């Protein structure tokens, strides 16, 4: 009996061990299946395929904007963007999509530029390297004026010629407008009151006038509206009757060239507005940069593990 008992115990132990091994094998198979599901939108080495993640779509702004035109050129020039498209909509729609993506920590690629309030809100965003130089390097925003302005309105000419500020100035106005809900002109007026040291540099040697009219032509974007309304506020303190006219970028250059407007503070060079600038360059006067350190390009949130446009993958 004892001998049979030992045999039975040994047999039971072996059966139990086999059951454990079989269960472990089944569990391992289940884990492999789950691991396979987690590899969606990843490359062969486990890296995220951001092209698939964003459905090979760049989130853009208005059609006809300089950065929109340049992005379409980039899609033509980069093999890594072959088969991609840029979703042209509006600046507000782009910002809304960016907010949602960052809130959920999801991938997104946008047409971005400095100065813009999104960089004040999300300072860790980054530009993708642009080895082909399609977007250029550093941009400047120039002041252009109609021919004859210096002779006809010398004080206004002197003021817009002396107008200089920096990226943080412009972004602070746009960001405050977004955060408070106040319109750009209201915030620009407050900025002027709080920055009299800079204003004094712009108005040095400028005499007051009595109701002289002046028209600033601007693009409709908050960046250019910020500079236009700041200068408007300063000029009004000197007695000018100032009108800010927002128009499409092509019309900005055309109106200054034709003398329909007095000045524009919104000419992005040397890349963004090059085509428009070159078309009319002999019909206006270029007063040089009013802002340096501007930039355009493809922008992603900092949590995306990608550094260059060439790291993207073409659509199949």
UniProtKB/TrEMBL annotation:
<keyword id="KW-0732">Signal</keyword>
<feature type="domain" description="ABC-type glycine betaine transport system substrate-binding">
    <location>
        <begin position="52"/>
        <end position="193"/>
    </location>
</feature>
<keyword id="KW-0813">Transport</keyword>
<dbReference type="InterPro" id="IPR007210">
    <property type="entry name" value="ABC_Gly_betaine_transp_sub-bd"/>
</dbReference>
<feature type="signal peptide">
    <location>
        <begin position="1"/>
        <end position="23"/>
    </location>
</feature>
<feature type="domain" description="ABC-type glycine betaine transport system substrate-binding">
    <location>
        <begin position="217"/>
        <end position="313"/>
    </location>
</feature>
<dbReference type="Pfam" id="PF04069">
    <property type="entry name" value="OpuAC"/>
</dbReference>
<feature type="region of interest" description="Disordered">
    <location>
        <begin position="29"/>
        <end position="48"/>
    </location>
</feature>
<protein>
    <submittedName>
        <fullName>Glycine betaine/proline transport system substrate-binding protein</fullName>
    </submittedName>
</protein>
<keyword id="KW-0472">Membrane</keyword>
<keyword id="KW-1003">Cell membrane</keyword>
């Amino acid at each position: 009996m004892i001998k049979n008992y030992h045999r039975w115990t040994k047999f039971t132990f072996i059966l139990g061990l086999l059951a454990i091994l079989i269960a472990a094998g089944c569990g391992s198979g289940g884990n492999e299946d789950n691991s396979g599901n987690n590899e969606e939108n990843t490359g062969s080495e486990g890296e995220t395929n951001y092209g698939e993640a964003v459905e090979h779509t760049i989130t853009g702004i208005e059609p006809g904007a300089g950065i929109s035109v340049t992005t379409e050129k980039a899609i033509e020039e980069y093999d890594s963007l072959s088969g991609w498209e840029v979703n042209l909509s509006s600046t507000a729609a782009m910002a809304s999509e960016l907010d949602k993506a960052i809130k959920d920590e999801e991938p997104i690629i946008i047409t971005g530029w400095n100065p813009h309030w999104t960089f004040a809100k999300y300072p860790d965003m980054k530009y993708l390297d642009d080895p082909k130089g399609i977007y250029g390097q550093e941009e400047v925003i120039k002041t252009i004026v109609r021919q004859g302005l210096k002779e006809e309105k010398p004080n206004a000419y002197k003021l817009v010629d002396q107008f200089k500020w920096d990226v943080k100035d412009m972004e602070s106005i746009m960001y405050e407008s977004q955060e408070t809900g106040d319109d750009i002109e209201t915030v620009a007026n407050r900025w002027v009151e709080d920055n009299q040291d800079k204003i004094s540099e712009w108005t040095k040697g400028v005499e007051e006038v009595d109701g002289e009219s002046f028209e600033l032509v601007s693009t409709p974007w908050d960046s250019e509206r910020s500079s236009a309304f700041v200068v408007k506020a300063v000029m009004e303190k000197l007695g000018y009757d100032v009108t800010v006219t927002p128009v499409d970028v092509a019309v900005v250059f055309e109106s200054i060239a034709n003398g329909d407007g007095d000045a524009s503070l919104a000419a992005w060079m040397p890349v963004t507005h090059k085509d428009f600038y070159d078309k009319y360059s002999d019909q206006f006067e270029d007063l040089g940069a009013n802002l340096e350190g501007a930039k355009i390009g493809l922008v992603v949130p900092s949590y995306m593990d990608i550094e260059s446009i060439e790291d993207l993958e073409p659509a199949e």
